[in-house]
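Recall the central idea of this unit: under ordinary conditions, the amino acid sequence of a chain determines the structure it adopts. In this exercise we apply that idea directly, starting from the sequence alone.
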Amino acid sequence: MKKIVYIAAIIFLSTSWACDDALGTKYNDTFGDEYTWTLPDVALGTLMNAYNSIPSLPNSYGNDLLDVATDNALTGTRSSSLYRFVQGGLNPTSNALGNWSLAYDQFQYIHTFMENGLGSNIKYNLSDSVRDKKIRDRSRGEAYFLRAWWGMELLKVFGGVTEDGQALGYPIITKFITEEDREEINKKTRNTYEECVLQIIADCDSAFKYLPLAYTGGDVDLGTTQEGRASGKAALALQSRAALYGASPGYQPAGSFALSTDSLQKKWERVVHLSERAITMGNLGAYTALKENMYVGNSVQQTTHAEFLFRKWSNNRTLENQNFPPLFFGQGRTNPSQNLVDAYPAKNGYPISDVRSGYNSQNPYVNRDDRFELTLFYNGKIFNSERPLEIYTQGTAKGRDAAGYDYNNTITGYYLKKFLSPIKEMLYDPSTLSAKNDYHQYPLLRRAEVYYNLAEALSELAGASGTVSGSSRTAYSIIRDIRTKNGITSTAYLDEIAAESDKEKFLLFVLNERRLEFAFENERFFDLRRRMMPLNESIRGISAEKEGTGFIYTEFVAEQRSMTDNYQYMPLPYVETLKNPNLIQNKGW
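Accordingly, the structure predicted from this sequence is:
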């Protein structure tokens, strides 16, 4: 049967693939394969579909950010799929994170391109053989990267341990599946978790071989106009991510399938090796603290910061519509938690639970880590140069931004700031009576992640200050650099816990730093599971009562969760287990 029947060929409408409206979908089944696969735009468009299915904004889970299903936040929209999820609504027929069919659809696009779009029958530039080779090699590298990307997305969601202790991933597919193949495929078992990790790493190696390290200069095919495509740097970073998941405690075989300590050590050593490789061969440069102008504003339409190794780009006001406070014409949807707020240290580096931090619970937002200011709006903080937010009560009166003044106002006492535009008239400009758009970049792979992966592996293997073969760094030196660049003024507390030689305590410290760094980047959900950390923590909020010129702050429980132990692993889709009884279900389902 002709493959083109199953393929939605995507045709370029613009020279800039990264723009929201640069691509359209055109279904073409009027020609056979022998003609279709001589058309460069159709071939490249087929591959491009695997790009287009990657979300352009972080609120890709039913209009929520995935952090609302963690201890970082809650969603103010009680009809949302993630609210149902945290209230016990996960099961094999209903999974707000389900991406099984989506990922396998992308494999189909990728494989049909790999099998048909790289042959001698197609020329990507008829008049210039050099350009033809550049486009062909770049596209081959992109195909390998995208197969690794979608494999990693499947592994993050559905990788798990079975009742008998097997650590399994997904059924690895490396060819286009025809109708004739489906009976065979529907008998295929899940590959082991380690086999999936190795497949992703191997695909990233292949991608790195063909892709430019970065898109720089004026070359029409490999220059800055192609920014946003997969690059060699992105392939190396994705390898580091796959290795980290492969070493994480949540995905190790148990019982009679258990690994030896030596085998687990080798997995952590692999994380060190691949992370160092990404930093050196990828020419990543040093860690840089995240800043607002890296991901939003006019400047991001023209350039991608070196921090963002793989990103999507958009020009809209979607995040602002959903997350601005209601009196600024938003829906106040994402409500950061007091749990997250308490995780940020004081400016001097001490946790706020330590008296040496100088923390005052009745003046709680002064002298905090720079990432705190980047991420959250809180009572009294100036909203986008407009006015201080009024997230308080005064007797029976409600502040304009407090719960109860508007039914969409924050439940927890906080609003999301990260990724949102700083334009105060974003959703309503009185002078024009209209709304505005702003440019956004959503980072999918960051340079910082490679450093955090390395720090975690070094901490696992050698504690805070020990060294590991293949790396001249220590977990301590990496975290010290990160904290200093985020405004922490002293290393005293870091030095103190490093000197204790308590490997577990320092590891938890590293994981907390990771939590702060990647808040609202949809990483916390998976980090909790791969590290087997508590999932069912109650979400706390803060209420403020205005008294004179000050406030009395009181914590309260804003939301109870109903995520039982089986939430550690996601269930395979019921329909897939019906089609293929050889798919062993994850533990608890």
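Confidence is low (pLDDT under 50) at residues 1-31.
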